[in-house]
Amino acid sequence: MPAATSKNAIAIEKGSSLGRDAWLRLRKNHLAMASLWFTVFIVFISFILPLVPGIPNPNVTHPDLQSLPAFTSAKSMEGVEVFYLLGSDHLGRDVFSRILHGGRVSLAVGFLATFVSLTIGVVYGAVSGYLGGRIDAAMMRVVDILYALPFIIIVIILTTYFGNQLWLLFVCIGAVEWLTMSRIVRGQVLSLKRQEFIEAARSLGLSQWRILFRHLIPNTLGPVIVYTTLTVPAVMRLEAVLSFLSLGVQPPDASWGSLIKEGADLMGSDPALLIYPALVFGATLFSLNFLGDGLRDALDPKSSKD
User: Fold this and answer.
1) Using CA atoms, how far apart are residues 13 and 20, in angstroms rounded to an integer?
2) Chain CA centroid to CA 190, Å
3) How far apart are CA 178 and CA 117, in angstroms?
4) SS3 state at 138
5) Cα-to-chain-centroid distance, residue 288
6) Among 38, 51, 63, 190, which residue is least crowded by beta carbons within 10 Å?
7) Sequential DSSP letters for 246-293
8) Is 300 helix (H, G, I), strand (E, B) or coil?
9) How confident is the prediction along the chain (306 residues), in pLDDT tens digits per residue?
10) In whole angstroms, what is the distance from residue 192 CA to residue 189 CA?
């Protein structure tokens, strides 16, 4: 082939994966990207910054340094030099440090409980949708029954019997948050199991479990990822409600919900105790919801105009 012909040959366009296309669409959504970086920032400072030397213990009290304003340097009666970035509370504890450690608990509950609900909901919904028939109907009736249970009353009974334990919070939240996930996955599997690639897998003699876990569930990841980003703030709100009702994290430990509860009790004398954790908590919830909306648009193939 002549050199001129090779130089003028038509260039083959490089292929692109669905994941890369979704990432490119997500990058065009400036609000979603800003929310993503803000969420990463909040997770980083909540889990890493408290390990930095100089960040005070959130449970150390200085009774002589109560309710100090932000950016205050002081020396306690024990001779300890302290700097309150966001001021101190009614017991002389560092508000900034308590917000960081409270973020650890709230984010841990949000991510871990979501992971538990994700695992249970995806498997339960996929099995129900794939088997179909009477089994599907029976499994969905179980979901309906669990939906009808009075959640708060169950939490009160369990906390009265077992005490206010952090593991109990995971159990209570995980017992209800997987229900919607199972319905979403079931609907996806019902539409996917009649597709040609599933018929091809059956014709090759693949087992039902292999078809379910290697072909059906991976093809539901788009809606699952989107709903997961929306489940995290829902779980965090639920934990905050329980902590606000004194059914969640107990002193001296703190979460953003319990800090908001403490701030609400002292709002008249020191409104900063309510404002700071409420702003951080609200901004985090907004960021996670905006990120979920961005992922929904990015993972929707119909959003591509090409």
Assistant:
1) 15
2) 27
3) 4
4) helix
5) 7
6) 51
7) TSSS-TTS--HHHHHHHHHHTTTT-THHHHHHHHHHHHHHHHHHHHHH
8) coil
9) 455 544 444 455 555 566 677 778 878 888 989 999 999 999 999 888 888 877 888 888 888 888 888 888 888 787 778 888 888 888 888 889 899 988 888 898 888 888 888 888 899 998 988 888 898 899 999 988 888 877 777 777 776 777 667 777 777 777 777 888 889 889 888 888 888 888 887 888 878 888 888 888 888 887 888 888 888 888 888 888 888 777 777 777 788 888 888 888 888 888 888 899 999 999 999 998 888 888 887 776 554 444
10) 5
Q: How many residues does the chain have?
A: 306
Q: What is the CATH number of domain 43-303?
A: 1.10.3720.10
User: What pTM does this model have?
Assistant: 0.80
C-alpha to C-alpha distance for 183 and 202, rounded to whole angstroms:
25
Q: Look up residue 194 and give its amino acid.
A: R
Structure tokens at 100: 């960081």
DSSP 3-state of 75: strand
- Domain parsing of the chain, residue ranges: 43-303
